[in-house]
Amino acid sequence: MIMKKALSLAGSDSSGGAGIQADLKTFQELGVYGMTALTTIVSMDPKDGWSHHVYPQSIDTVKAQLETILSVGIDAMKTGMLGSVEIIELAARKIDELGLQNVVIDPVMVCKGEDEVLHPETAVALRDVLVPRAAVVTPNLFEAWQLSGIGPIRNVEDMKEAAVKIHESGAKYVLVKGGSKLEHDQAIDLLYDGETFEILESERIETTYTHGAGCTYSAAITAELAKGKPVREAIYTAKDFITEAIRHSWKLNEYVGPTMHGAYRKFGAGRLEAAEQTSK
Q1: DSSP line for 146-193
Q2: Judging by beta carbons within 10 Å of its beta carbon (0-12, 13-18, 19+), is residue 58 exposed, middle or buried?
Q3: Which of 122-131, 176-185, 242-251 has the weakest average pLDDT?
Q4: Considering the entire predicted model, what is its pTM?
């Protein structure tokens, strides 16, 4: 048996819901063999309101991991929390050296629950160095604001303006994740390919248990691209995957609740098939 292979160049979430942990679970659920190059380790302090502590890995450690993985070969890759301009530039060099096309850039700038960019200079490097190499870039509203420079994003028109600005930076597809953050009765994301805007809608699920949702969404896109799916198909499958993961999310402790990575396999396929039959 030969499996398609995907790389996650990202941080580690010690609580298991986000980062490389979320990526590996998602890859596995979608039938792709996952490998990881760890850029940072993030821990949470239960004695201080689950505050985050970030421990960057050295550039030599990241290089060694990438050398191991890329010697095996990959069919797609994604980036998450990178932590430094040096690591962003390293990622760009490897993408160019290998001529990688299936590249998903999840421009992680903050830990969930935090409200300041970890390293402001990385936002500039992400925009100028990595976004131009992306098949898909997947910013949330805050990240789209930082990458586009248009200011806070509050509605679909703002999302469209941000998507245009980010696309001008060089990404082939821009997926601005509005989710449940917008004032709307649906969970909305916006896809832009440089010509057409597409609104992706799903049921608005009222829950605060969304830890790792962004990582999971981008990992699902990466897995589908690794399997050879076209970008739009990959994104639509990923939208269904994350919707089910959030629908069945659960409480980990008093501070956080992660998405359920197995929900699409366990519950989603039947739900989606039933919906398709109903629409016929």
Answers
A1: HHH-S----SHHHHHHHHHHHHHTT-SEEEEEEETSSSSSEEEEEEE-
A2: exposed
A3: 176-185
A4: 0.94
